[in-house]
Design goal:
By secondary structure, the chain is α+β, with helices and mostly antiparallel strands. It contains three helices and seven strands. The protein has one domain: Cytidine Deaminase, domain 2 (3-Layer(aba) Sandwich). A hairpin with a 5-residue loop joins strand 6 and strand 7. The structure holds tetrahydrodeoxyuridine.
């Protein structure tokens, strides 16, 4: 029997330890969370993408009475970012979530579908996206989406 052990490198910081551009991207994600449309879950998520050209694109979760029609903050943000800047890499993606007006203590963890989209963002620009998952008590940072999605689906039949 053989085993493959996969390790992910996750940096754990508090807000004060972040670099200025990391702080700024987190701040933008937090602001965006307040604008989320989440009447069904009450779970408001904001995301911010710092693009290579310095632009910051924000988005949030958009729910719908027909539940599967809604979309997470990460995909709302990345799809909009790519629709505005198709040739621009995303350098940093920050995510923050709040319930009842208060941010979570621990980092939010993106769903599988969002991780797949985040990975494609890296692949199409051929450069890693730093992902910052905000929590009031601790913040998780990975230098690449690959650390969030081991054994990722890449393409068929390669
Ligand atoms: N949600 C996000 O927007 N991002 C995540 O990383 C996790 C979950 C949304 C989807 C849904 O609108 C609500 O949070 C509850 O799951």
């Amino acid at each position: 029997m053989k085993y493959l052990k996969i390790a992910a490198k996750i940096r754990i910081n508090n807000y004060n330890e972040l670099l200025p551009e990391e702080k700024n991207t987190v701040d933008k994600a937090k602001e965006a969370a307040f604008r989320a449309y989440a009447p069904y879950s009450g779970f408001q998520v904001g995301a911010a993408a710092l693009m290579e050209n310095g632009a910051v694109i924000t988005g949030n979760n958009q729910e719908n009475v027909a539940f599967p029609s809604g979309l997470c903050a990460e995909r709302t943000t990345l799809f909009y970012a790519h629709s505005q800047y198709p040739d621009e890499a995303v350098r940093v993606l920050a995510v923050a979530a709040l319930t009842k007006g208060d941010f979570l203590d621990r980092p939010i963890s993106p769903c599988g579908a969002c991780r797949q989209v985040m990975l494609e963002t890296e692949m199409r620009a051929n450069q890693p996206v730093k992902v910052i998952l905000y929590g009031k008590k601790e913040i998780f940072i990975v230098e690449s989406v690959k650390d969030l999605l081991p054994l990722a689906f890449d393409s068929v039949g390669k």
